[in-house]
């Protein structure tokens, strides 16, 4: 079982929102996403999708796009992007998915997961304070998103600790209580991988720090995945390691619409 990631699907199967404004590279992008996805992703795999999933303005308008994602192999973890205007409260989205028989998608917002020996956390992110377009209202949203990231990371640790406890209990029930802790560590690793999925880039200049980078470093995150940047915006992306955290741009067009395996 493997984990993959791809952001910015920008599906518009029921609304007229062409992506060719970002260049010819977006031609036939839906077909390309499906082709690559089906070639490499199996039902037991997990795919992280950090934002800008559908152009729909309501859940009804997003339905065809969500059904497209549902029909693809694998379990999916979705988080919100700036264009996901269809996304209401988590409960409303979860109820909507359930009412249409969609069971392969889970939502990441103020929560976290432990999957395949990996802690998964994240938030939407926002404009960084260094951005010249950032206004006073943006500063408040930025601080809120930093807080959401921290809550998500804390919750992913709780999910890991719950898995540890379950592993120890299972070992004890089979008469292997004495070696339970060893069994848990061998299954999950003494220090499990920590992955964060954001929509907005949390960093542009590696010489500068902000609430997102400081939170990632505080929690010892190994890999931070982000999207949002398209076309010439790819040139602004920072990809590399800063203070132990690796940053990777996974916008769909940057990946040539081919999900990246972690």
Whole-angstrom Rg:
19 Å
Strand content: 15-25%
| Count of distinct structural domains | 1
- Portion in helices: 25-40%
Whole-Å distance between the termini? 11 Å
Q: Estimate the global geometry from the Cα principal axes.
A: globular
CATH architecture identity: 4-Layer Sandwich
Please, how many helices?
Answer: 6
Any low-confidence stretches, pLDDT <50, length ≥5?
Answer: 177-188
Largest sheet: 6 strands, mixed
CATH superfamily: Metallo-dependent phosphatases
The CATH class, by name, is Alpha Beta
Describe this structure in words.
The protein has 262 residues and is of the alpha/beta class. The protein has one domain: Metallo-dependent phosphatases (Purple Acid Phosphatase, chain A, domain 2). Helix content is 34%, strand content 17%. The strands form 2 sheets. It has a 6-stranded mixed sheet with strand order 5-6-7-8-10-9. A 5-stranded mixed sheet has the order 4-3-2-1-11. Helix 4 packs across helix 5 (180-188) and helix 4 packs parallel to helix 6. The protein is globular. The relative contact order is 0.17.
Topology:
Elements: E1 3-5, H1 29-40, E2 46-50, H2 59-71, E3 75-79, H3 90-99, E4 105-107, E5 113-115, E6 118-123, H4 136-173, H5 180-188, E7 193-198, H6 211-218, E8 223-226, E9 240-242, E10 245-249, E11 260-261
Parallel strand pairs: 1-2, 2-3, 3-4, 6-7, 7-8, 8-10
Antiparallel strand pairs: 1-11, 5-6, 9-10
Helix pairs in contact: 4-5, 4-6
């Amino acid at each position: 079982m493997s984990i993959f990631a791809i952001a910015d699907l920008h599906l518009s199967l029921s609304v007229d929102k062409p992506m060719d404004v970002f260049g010819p590279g977006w031609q036939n992008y839906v077909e390309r996403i499906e082709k690559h996805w089906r070639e490499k992703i199996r039902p037991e795999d997990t795919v992280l999708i950090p934002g800008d999933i559908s152009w729909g303005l309501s859940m009804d308008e997003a339905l065809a796009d969500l059904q497209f994602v549902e029909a693809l192999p694998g379990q999916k973890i979705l988080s919100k992007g700036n264009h996901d205007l269809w996304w209401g409260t988590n409960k409303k989205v979860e109820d909507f998915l359930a009412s249409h028989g969609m069971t392969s998608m889970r939502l990441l917002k103020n929560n976290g997961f432990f999957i395949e020996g990996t802690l998964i956390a994240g938030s939407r992110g926002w404009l960084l304070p260094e951005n010249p377009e950032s206004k006073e209202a943006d500063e408040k949203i930025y601080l809120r998103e930093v807080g959401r990231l921290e809550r998500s990371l804390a919750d992913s640790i709780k999910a890991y600790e719950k898995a540890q406890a379950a592993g120890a209990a299972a070992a004890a029930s089979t008469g292997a209580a004495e070696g339970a802790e060893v069994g848990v560590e061998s299954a999950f690793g003494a220090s499990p991988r920590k992955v964060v999925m954001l929509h907005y880039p949390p960093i542009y200049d590696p010489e500068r720090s902000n609430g997102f980078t400081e939170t990632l470093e505080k929690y010892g995150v190994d890999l931070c995945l982000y999207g949002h940047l398209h076309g010439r915006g790819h040139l602004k992306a920072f990809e590399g390691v800063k203070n132990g955290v690796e940053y990777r741009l996974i916008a769909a067009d940057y990946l040539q619409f081919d999900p990246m395996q972690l």
